[in-house]
Design brief:
This protein is α+β, with helices and mostly antiparallel strands and 385 residues long. The protein folds into two domains: 83-157, no CATH class; 172-379, Orthogonal Bundle (MetI-like fold). The chain contains 14 helices and four strands. The chain has helices at residues 21-28, 31-40, 43-60, 62-65, 169-205, 207-222, 225-233, 242-272, 276-283, 288-299, 301-325, 336-340, 346-351, 357-379, and strands at residues 86-88, 94-107, 114-137, 141-150. Helix 3 crosses helix 14, helix 5 packs antiparallel against helix 6 and helix 5 (169-205) runs parallel beside helix 8 (242-272). The chain is elongated.
């Protein structure tokens, strides 16, 4: 009779076994490392962050990226449609470098409607780092080099068409990004300061200060936003220079936008003011202002960053709405809202739909900020499931 040897089973998991390498990394990681690892799992937040980096890079170096001077116009090419960069001619032959055909205007003898067709007799080569209209980068560095342009700046290159004055829409869109995107950052920065100060001391002290602050916040939040923006914008004198109007509109948006941040900060302070580290700072002799700014605010800085990211789209939409209605920024200032003023004429938009491209830029920016804010909000609490 054959005696079967007993099967050796796998060793059971030992309770209290040493952690693996990946677990050790989690145990010794800092709060910011945990947030970064959590943020990387949010794919749409990463995509939104990359798109926003591209948009802000275009805004910062708009003079270089814009093909033309945004104020340059051509009365012969009013409402010209977008042109295509080609590698193949109409005859079917391949062509390098890429090129663009000229444009010629035609008038319909029946409807008298102005139309444009490609002029195949005029071919303009498209170059990277081409010389074009002179500019000063940030108003300081003179140059004539543009990222993209026709060879020798010989012909028109309107990749998303022209407006009612024959100005290049792409150049104006890139220049407008500097105003529309920066006004969101500046406005949220001012709202952040006011919200942290009022919300922080409201939650820290409580009492009569908290009651007054909360009643003010409730009043401001009960008033419809757009009419309140319009009323405050009407107080900006129309004879102010563009720079003063810019800061005036930013201040108007900030006066309304701080309430949400103040509510968030107040709730956090009410939860933190009885913590041990706050009591230790008091016993160490720290002033109340130092306790608020150096101890309590940094303890939930990640939540502030997430809230700020979600607040920027509201500022951008506010500027766009006010400028679209004619009570915000005005020409010659170039912003996406100012450009959308031409979209008020439905007949013009029906014939020239490319005039709505700034609206698409606003939608893309707001969506990207919302995706980024969602990712940061999840990353702000890396221990949650």
């Amino acid at each position: 009779m054959t005696i079967r040897e007993p099967e050796i089973s796998e060793a059971p998991e030992v309770v209290g076994a040493p952690p693996t390498t990946s677990e050790e990394k989690v145990y010794v990681a800092s709060q910011w490392q945990l947030m970064w690892w959590r943020f990387r799992k949010h794919k749409m937040a990463g995509v939104g962050g990359v798109v926003l980096i591209i948009f802000y890079t275009l805004a910062i170096f708009c003079e270089f990226f814009a093909p033309f001077d945004p104020l340059k116009f051509d009365s012969r090419l009013v409402f010209a449609p977008p042109q295509a960069i080609r590698l193949r001619s109409v005859q079917g032959t391949w062509h390098w470098p890429p090129f663009i055909y000229g444009v010629k205007q035609q008038i319909d003898p029946v409807s008298y409607r102005r139309t444009y067709v490609a002029d195949t007799s005029k071919v303009y080569n498209v170059r990277l780092f081409a010389r074009g209209d002179p500019y000063k980068l940030w108003g300081l560095i003179p140059s004539t080099i543009h990222l993209l342009g026709t060879e020798g700046n010989a012909g028109p290159m309107y990749l998303i068409g022209t407006d009612r004055m024959g100005r290049d829409m792409l150049s104006r869109l890139i220049y407008g990004a500097r105003i529309s995107l920066s006004i969101g950052l500046v406005g949220v920065f001012l709202s952040l300061i006011v919200g942290i100060l009022i919300g922080g001391f409201s939650g820290y002290y409580g009492g009569i200060f908290d009651i007054i602050a909360q009643r003010i916040i409730e009043f401001l939040r009960s008033v419809p936003t757009l009419p309140l923006w319009m009323a405050l914008s009407a107080a900006v004198p129309p004879f102010w220079p563009p720079l003063q109007v810019y800061f005036g509109i930013t201040l108007v948006l900030s006066l309304i936008g701080w309430t949400g941040m103040a509510r968030v900060v107040r709730g956090k302070f009410m939860a933190l003011r009885e913590e041990d580290f706050v009591m230790a700072a008091k016993l160490a002799g720290s002033s109340e202002f130092r306790i608020v700014t150096r101890h309590m605010v940094p303890s939930f800085l990640s939540h502030i960053i997430a809230s700020v990211t979600l607040s920027i789209p509201g500022m951008i939409l506010g500027e766009t709405s006010l400028s679209f209605l004619g009570v915000g920024l005005r020409p010659p200032v170039i912003s996406w809202g100012v450009m959308l003023q031409e979209g008020q004429n439905l007949a013009t938009v029906a014939l020239s739909p490319w005039l709505l491209v700034p609206g698409l830029a606003v939608i893309a920016t707001v969506l990207c900020f919302n995706f980024l804010g969602d990712g940061l909000r999840d990353a702000a609490d890396p221990y949650s499931r």
